[in-house]
Amino acid sequence: MPSFESVHTQTGESTWARSRSGIGGRLRALRMAWIDNSRYFPLMLLMPVLIFFLLWNIIPLLWMVGMSFYNYSLVTGQPPRFIGLGNFVDLYNSFAVWGALGKTFVFVFFSVGIETALGMLLGILFWGSTRLPGRRLALTLLFSPMVLTPAATGTFYRLIYEPTFGVANYLTILIFGAKIDFLGDKFWAMPAVLLVDIWMWTPFMILITLAALGSVPRAELEAAEVDRLPWPQRFRYVVLPHAKFILMLGIVLRTIDSFKVMDLIYQLTRGGPGNTTEVVGITLFRKAFEGFTMGWSSALAVITLLVAIAFTSIFLYILNLRQRGGAN
Amino acid sequence: MSKRKIQFLVTSLVVVMAWTALSGFSPSQAADHPLKGQKIEMAILGIGGWLPSRLGVDMSPLFAEYAKKNYGYDVSFTFAEAPFSALFQKAASTLATRSQEYNIIISDSQWLGAFAEPGWIVKVSDLIKENPELDIEWYDRVVVDTYMEYPEGSGELWGLPEEGDTIALFVRKDLFNDPAEQKAFKEKHGMDLPQTFEDFENLSMTDFEKIAEFFTRPDKGLWGTAMQYSKEYDFMTMYLYPFMFSRGGDIWDPKEYKVYGILNSQVNAEGMIWNKRMLNYQPPGAVNYGIAEEIDAFTQDKVATAFQWAAVGLAMITEQNKDRVMVVPPPGFKQADGSLKRLYSIGGQPWVINAYNDEAHMRVAVDFLKWWYLPETQLEFAKRGGNPCVKAVLEGPGFEDIQPWFRAFKYMLRTDRSRDFWHDPKYSEMLAAQQEGFTAFATGQIDDPMLGLEYAACQQQKILYEAGRSKIKPPKSCDDVRLK
Question: Can you give the pTM of this predicted structure?
Fold first, then answer.
C-alpha cells in the first residue's frame, strides 16, 4: 500500500504533469491556431526583415522622392520650398548633368564589357584546368582585388600612376621611352580609371562565370564530348543555355554597381582633370555633400535610380525574351 | 601704523592685483565659478591631418590644468576630425539636428556664413560684449575680415581666429646659395639669384618665372617650383587667385552679389594663362597637386621652390632639409607704374562655438577661448608650430625667430597682401563650379581661359540668383556656356 507521502507525491506530480500538459497543450493549440496555421505566418517570419527594409530603404526612398520636389539647401537656414518639377526641369537643362551621364554610360559600357569578356575568358580557363598545380592559390590571389575597399584601391593606384615615381611610368619609360601623366591628362584619365575598375572587378565576373559553368549538367557535357562537338559549339549549345542566367545576373549586378561608381574615381581623380572623369555619382556627391542642395540632389538621385531600374529591366527583358524564344 | 608699513602694504596690494589681472583670473572668480567641482567633457571638431587644427587639441590638457587650478572644475577633451572637404558636412549634419555633439568647431573661414545663417553658431560680437577679455587687438584688419566677420563689412562677428595662415615661398637655400648656380643664372639672365628675405621681397613673378625655368631639369629629377592645381576643395582656386588679385582682377561685388562681368574679365583670363604656364616648371602630375603632394615634392627635393601655406611649415621643413630651407614672401606682380603688388589668398581657420551647447559647455567653451588668447598660450602655440594672430604676440620680441616661416607669415598677414573670398552660405556650390571651370583650363580640357571664367561666373550668378541672394539674373548667353 503506498504511503500517504507517496500518494501525495504521485498525486501532486500527476496533477502538476496534467496541469503542465494542460497549459502546454493549450499554449500549443493557441500557437497552432494563431501562428502556425495562420495565413499570416509567412508574413510574421518576414516581419523583421520587412521592418528593417521599411525603415532603411522604403522610408528614405520616399523621403528622397518627396524632397526632389523641393528647393532645400542645408546651409541657408530656410525651410524647404515646394517647386514642383523645378529640379527635374533644371536637371534636364543642365549640360553638366548630361555630360556626367554621358561619361557614366561610357564608363559602364567599357568597364562591364571588358570585365565580362575577361572574366568569362579567365573563368573558362580556370574551369578547364582542374589539375593545374596551385589552382586554388591562384584563384584566391585573383579574387583578392575585389575584397579591397575602393578607397584603398584608389589611393594605391594614385601612387602607381604617379608620374615621377610611380611604377606605371617606370614601365611606360621602359616600353615607350616616355612618361604619361595618367591621371592628369584629359585623354588618359578615363582609360586609367577604367583600368583600375577592371582590375578590381574582373575577379567578380570570374567568380560568376565559375558559378555559371558549375550549373551545367555534367551528363550534357559528357555527351558533347562523346559527340566530339567543337568547343565554340559546345559553349553555345550546351554551356550557354544553362550558364546565361547566372552570367546575366553578374552583368546586371556589375552594371548597377558601375553606374553608381563614385568612391574609386573620387579617390583617383576627384572627377578631373577638369571634369573629364566626372561621372554622375561624383556630381551627385558634390551637389549633395559639398553643395548641400538637398532638393536638386534628390532629383538627380531619383533619375539615377530610374536609370538603374531601366538597366535591370532591359537585361531581364532580354533574358526572358531569349528564354521564351528558346522554349518556342 | 608706520608710514613704511603702509607703503609696504599698498605695494603688496598693487603687486597682488597686478598679478591676478595678468594671470587672467581673480580668486573670487575661481571661488564663484558655477562649474566648480564639476566634471565636463568637451568635444572639438577639427580638420583631419591639419597640424594647426591638431595643435588646438594637443594643447587642451594645458587648459584642463588651468581650469582645475583657476576655476576648480575638471575638463577633458575629445577630438573628432574630417578632411577639409568633408568637415563642414560632418558639422552640418549634427548642427542641423541641434546637437551639441561638437561643442567647439574649427571651421574654415569661408564656412562662417553657412554656419551663421541657420543660427548654428554663437554670435561672437555678443560674446565679446559679455566677455571683454575676448576683445583682442589683432595684428591686422585682415584677421577680422577673414576669420571673424560675416557678412562682409557688416561688423557682425561669428568666429575667433584659431590660427592665421598665408601663402609663403619655401626655397632650397642649397641651390640658391650655390656659386655655380649663381654664376650660371647670372650668365643666362643677367641678374642675380635672390639670396635674402629682402631680395625675395623685391622679386617679381616675371623674374621668378625665369628662376623656375632655370631650375627645371627633368633629366635630373629637379623642377623649378610647385603650386596647387587639384580639383579638390579650394586648392586650385587658392593658388590661381594671386594671379588675378595681384594684377587688379576681382571675383565679385559683395554688395550686389554680382559675379558675372567681374570674374569673367580679361585680366583674370590673362592670370589663368600665366598660372597655367607655371606648370611648365613643375613636376609631371602637378596638375593634381594639393597640399600633401606639394609637401612630398618639396621634401623629396624634387623642386627648388614651393608656394605653400605657412601652416604646414612643420611638414615642409624636416630634420633632413631644415638647414637648407628658407621661407620668404612669394613674388609680387609688376604694376603699370613699375611697383610690385602681391595680393595672395589667405588661409587659416577660426574657432566657432556651437549655439546648441548647454550652459555648462558654453561656459567652458568661453573659458577655453579666454585661455587660448592668453599671451603665454599663444606663445606656446607658436613654439609648437601654430601661427597666432594676436598683435601683442606677433609684435613681441623674437617672434620672427620662433619658427623659420614666421617672418614671411607676418609679412603676408596684411590686408594689402592677403585676401579671403566669399563667406557666403552658398560658398561650397560656388566653389565647386569655379574649381570645375578653373581646372578645365589648367588641365587642357578647354583651350580658352575665358570659357572657364564664363562657366564659373554663369554658374555662380545662377546659384546666387536662385538662392535669392542676388537680384542679378545670369544673362541669356549663359544658357549656352558649357565646358566641352
Answer: 0.82
